[in-house]
Write a structure and sequence with these properties.
Residues 2-222 form the ABC transporter domain. It contains 7 helices and 9 strands. The protein has helices spanning 40-47, 90-101, 105-114, 130-142, 160-175, 187-190, 211-219; strands at residues 2-11, 14-24, 29-33, 55-60, 75-78, 148-151, 179-184, 196-201, 204-209. The strands form 2 sheets. It has a 6-stranded mixed β-sheet with strand order 5-6-7-3-8-9, with helices on both faces. The chain has a 3-stranded antiparallel β-sheet with strand order 2-1-4, covered by helices on one side. The structure holds adenosine-5'-triphosphate.
């Protein structure tokens, strides 16, 4: 459902993504793992057609996202450090978003339950912890049942309650056929969730495989 072929991104002479190819299909949880500045967000922003690559090809559902924006109605996105309106409540944010997306209003109640935010749904975002904001942002992305969920640095570890639920939520989505792509700089955080890890450094793909293979290759242990 997402195919990237030889994507390169340059800023002046600086190459921040180098000939990056990746294919992700439905029902898969894939993590782009790499240190700060590795090129993870750049890749995500290219997938979202927010920045143009300098070379290469990207397809979502077999379509060019730069030409056919309709693909985004089937995709949910959680940005790094979600910026939600502080004066609204979590429920209001979700209801507003449900309206825009044409999602069912009862989906809001359902998702508030899934993310464990029923009790706090009517408090203002400004009163939320970072983890609670993150949960609302994930619920917002899941409104309308997207077939692709992209999360940029979800920082799952900042929220112990969500950390407990996140794996089961993502696995449930995966079983229903959702493609999940997330970025992280923390192997600990994603090693139990990801089916496939892509290690990226300075714009180059260094490794692609399972967590076990990664640990074996780079740490020489099981
Ligand atoms: P982080 O974990 O910090 O978000 P990342 O892996 O997502 O890191 P990117 O944000 O993709 O990294 O950045 C990759 C490189 O591209 C960085 O060195 C960054 O400074 C550079 N970069 C990003 N945007 C621009 C821009 N508009 N102009 C010049 N360089 C840029």
């Amino acid at each position: 459902m997402i195919v990237s072929e030889g994507i390169t991104k340059k800023y002046g002479n600086r190459v921040v993504l180098n000939n990056f190819s990746l294919t992700i299909t439905r029902g898969e949880i894939v993590t782009l793992l790499g240190p700060n500045g590795a090129g993870k967000t750049t890749f995500v922003r290219i997938v979202l057609a927010l920045i143009r690559p300098s070379g290469g090809k990207i397809e979502i559902f077999g379509k060019d996202p730069f030409k056919d924006k309709s693909v985004f109605s089937r995709l949910g996105y959680v940005q790094e450090l979600p910026n939600l309106p502080p004066f609204l409540t979590g429920r209001q944010v979700l209801l507003l978003s449900a309206n825009i997306k044409g999602a069912r209003k009862d989906e809001v109640d359902e998702l508030l339950g899934v993310i464990g935010m029923v009790e706090n749904a009517d408090k203002q975002i400004s009163k939320y912890s970072k983890g609670m904001v993150q949960r609302i942002a994930i619920a917002e992305a899941l409104l309308g049942n997207p077939e692709i969920l992209i999360m940029d640095e979800p920082n799952i570890g900042i929220d112990p309650i969500f950390n407990l639920n996140v794996r089961s939520l993502l696995n449930k989505l995966k079983k229903s056929g959702t493609l999940i792509l997330m970025t992280s700089h923390d192997l600990e955080e994603v090693k139990k969730i990801a089916d496939r890890l892509i290690l990226i450094n300075k714009g180059n793909k260094m490794f692609e495989g399972s967590t076990e293979e990664l640990i074996k290759k780079f740490l020489g242990i099981r």
